[in-house]
Structures are given as C-alpha cells and as structure tokens.
Amino acid sequence: MRKLIIIVLVVAALGGGAVWGYWKFTSPQRFQFRTATVERGRLEATIGATGTLQPEEVIDVGAQVAGRIEKFFKDESFKDPRDPTKEKLITWGSEVEDGTKLAQIDDRLYRADRDAAKADLARAKADLQLKTAQRAQAAADWKRAEDLKPQKGISDAEYDAAKAANDMAQANVGVSEAQVNQSKAALDKAETNLDYTTIRSPVKGVIIDRRINVGQTVVASLSAPSLFLIAKDLTKMEVWAVVNEADIGRIVIDQPVRFTVDALPGRVFRGKVIRQGNFQARLNVNMVNNVVTYTVVVAVDNADRALLPYQTANLNFIISDKSDALLVPNAALRWQPSRRQIHPDALKNFDKLLRDKRTDGATTGQERGIVWVADDGYVRPISVLIGLSDGVNTEVLAGDLPAGAEVVIGEASARNTEAGGNPFAPKLFGGPKKE
Questions:
Q1: Is residue 206 a contact partner of residue 236, using CB atoms and an 8 Å limit?
Q2: How do the domains of the chain map onto residue ranges?
Q3: For the chain, first and last CA: distance in Å?
Q4: pLDDT mean over 190-209
Q5: Alpha helices per DSSP H over 264-337
C-alpha cells in the first residue's frame, strides 16, 4: 500500500511538471522592461584631449663664446621679507629685465685678445704717422725736382727717382691707413667677444630653466649652447593639445575650450583655439605606432599665474552647447530586443526601419537611430534622427518621440543580468534558452 502511494505521488509530480512546462513554453509570454523618460535639457557636446601647457613666447639664451662659467649674478628681484639682507643668485624662477646680467664666462683670454688688438691699433697708428712724414718729405723732394727740371738743374734719372719716391710715399700712407682700419675692426671684434662673456637677458620675463652650473665649460662652435630658458610673459600661456584624427575636422578657430590640471583639482580653466601660423593643425601631423594625431594650440589667460609651464592639461573642446535639446539616453539607442520581444504587429515595420536606417545613413549622411517603447508586454520601434551626444544623452533632431515619453533602456526580467543580478554568478542548468 505504501509503495502504491509513493508511485501515485511520483506520477502526480511528473504530470504536474509536464503540465507546468507545457504552459510555460506555449502560453503567450509577457516581458517587463526598464524605462527612462525623454526630457528637454542642456546638451554640451565635447571632444576630449590631453595637452601640455607652454609659455606663449620662450627665449632660449645661449653663448656666442666658449669658456668656463665663472659665476652667476645676484637676483635683484629676490626679496625675503624675513631677512632683507638675504641674497639669491640667478636661477629658475628669477624675474629679469631686458639687459639683466645672468652669468659670467671666464674672460681672461678675451681680455688678452682685446689688449693685443689695442696694441696692434697703436702700432698701426704710429706707422701711419711715420708714413705720413715720409710722404711729406717725398712731396717736397718732388716739388724741388719739378722746379729744377726746366733749368736742367737735375738729371732725368734724379727727376724720375724723385717722382717714384713721391708715388711710393703716397701708396705707403694708404697702406698704413688700411692697417689702422683693420686694427680698429680687430679691436671691435675683441671687445665684442669680451662683452659676450657676460650673459645678459635679451627680454623682460621669468627664467623657467637654468641649464648650466658654475665650473661648467661652455663650448660654442657650430651652434650656440642653451644656457637659460626665459618665458617672456607667464600671464599668457598656451596649451598644445593632441587631438585624434577622427576629431580634428570639428576643431575651428575661436572654439571655446575647458580644461583642468592635476595640480589644481576642482578648478576649471577656460581658453580658446587660436590661429597658429596659418592654422597648420591639420597639416602638423604626428604618427606614433600608426596612430595619427594633430597638435592644436589653445590660448589661456593666466593672470594669477596659477598655471605653470609643462603641466598636463585635460581638455574638452566644446563643439555644441544647447540649452533646450530633446534628450534621449544613450542606453535607449544601444538596447536591442530579441524578435520575440517585438510586438507582432510591429515586426514588419521594424524590418522596414532597419532598411531605411541603412539607406538614409548612406545617402543623406544624417544618422538615424531606433528607440523602443513598451506596449502590453512587448516593445514597438520608433525611428528618430539623432544629433550630437555628451556621452550620456543624445539629442533627438526629428522623429515621433515627444518629451515625456518612456523609452526602454533594458529588460527587467530575472533572467537578464541588467535587472540587478550578478553578471558573474554561474547559470544553473545552462542558463536561459538562447533565442
């Protein structure tokens, strides 16, 4: 009797399971969806990039003569309120004026060259005086020879010798005058080289880098060595931004830019794209590992000098800013249902929308998207013409989608991980059946 009861219970359980399974897989299924509201609001579309802050104008101060760095001069702009007698030598951060002395190169050799040039000039001047006196003597002899020639007071040979001596004296004076001028030029060169041993600032600005130390030897041969880097005006700076090739076509002159730097978290700086030369951003290409980027220059006001040269900037180029745009969540444009989730009456229309989407995108260049609205446990498609996106929402330019409409952004089924389940949890018995 007990075995009979157990057999009956097992048969009843199997029969109930079969009935439930038949009902489960044959009865019309209704789905539940997560939705979001289409709203009007502000849309700011941007292009992200990174860049480096640069001074607007940088002067590279070099040396035109060779020698050992002997000393740095005192920083006249340095003032210590705690100790007014404290001094500081010229280094990075020093504010300099046009002509400020920066460093001194050992000038002993150049002083010797200057003194030698002075001696050569004095000798050339003395030689000129000698040649001038000889010319005067030769001129007097020539005059006497001319006076005696008609009276046959001198022979022809003496007359010719007096004439030749006078001509030679004139020529010697010319040679001596040329030597004097040459000695003056050599003295000017020696004094100029001596003056070059004192390195001076060519502009008013701030030293942002000192590349030498006392005792270091400067070698100026084919090119001038770089000693100091001076920023002419740190209140005006530039960001040299690296823009991807896919975005460079949307960068224009005077485009507003917003950026931040890691050194000042929470503070937002603003600037604008400026013309660099003839706006060569589209021509100045950089290619690294087959990745093409372009350099775009952004002007920045740095009146408070909060920004420092060579900081890394995270930029957003603002390509559109609309205050009353019809916004649909990007998730609604990305979500796609399975065919059995589409309302039976909308399947034919959905296939047509897909064909129209491909055709419109290829012919008009305007991008179309499809969003879905819930309808009695199913979804229906709505075709929309979409514009720019801010990464979260996308602007709807045209389509039968009014503000306040609820669009589907995901399935609220227990079998769907978007409903809040753990996507990494194991699925028992193979998980849900694939469509």
A1: no
A2: 29-41+325-419, 47-54+233-323, 58-106+202-231, 110-196
A3: 47
A4: 92
A5: 330-334
Residues 6+ apart with CB under 8 A from 26: none
Give the pLDDT confidence score for residue 18 in this predicted structure: 65
CA distance 332 to 33: 11
> Any idea which fold 47-54+233-323 has?
Elongation Factor Tu (Ef-tu); domain 3 (2.40.30)
What is the CATH T-level fold of the domain 58-106+202-231, as seen in this structure? OB fold (Dihydrolipoamide Acetyltransferase, E2P) (2.40.50)
Does residue 120 contact residue 172 with C-beta atoms inside 8 Å? Answer: no
**pLDDT for 300-314, tens place per residue?**
999 998 999 999 999
Strands 95-96 and 205-210, by their bridges, are: antiparallel
User: Distance between CA 341 and CA 374 in Å, rounded?
Assistant: 10
Distance CA 372, CA 338 (A): 12
Output phi, psi for 39, to 5 deg: -130, 165
Question: Is residue 302 within a helix (H) or strand (E), and if so which, with residue range?
Answer: none
What would the pLDDT profile of 1-53 be if each residue is shown by its tens digit?
A: 666 677 767 677 776 666 555 545 554 556 788 888 988 988 888 889 999 99
Alpha-carbon dihedral angle through residues 46, 50, 52, 53, given to the nearest 10 degrees: 30
* Cross-strand partners of 45: 320
For Cα atoms 366, 372, 376, give the angle at the middle one, nearest 5 degrees.
155
What is the DSSP track for 71-86? Answer: EE-B-TT---TT-TT-
Fold of domain 29-41+325-419: 2.40.420
pLDDT at 20: 55
CA separation (Å) from 392 to 141, 236, 327, 408? 108, 34, 9, 15
Is-contact 329 392, C-beta < 8 A? yes
Residue 370 CA, chain-centre distance (Å), reads 39
Name every residue whose Cβ is closer than 8 Å to that of residue 246 and which is 6 or more positions away in sequence.
none
pTM for the model: 0.63
Residue 415 in this model has a pLDDT that exceeds 70: no
Q: What is the pLDDT of residues 82-137, one digit of tens each?
A: 887 788 899 888 889 999 999 999 999 999 999 999 999 999 999 999 999 999 99
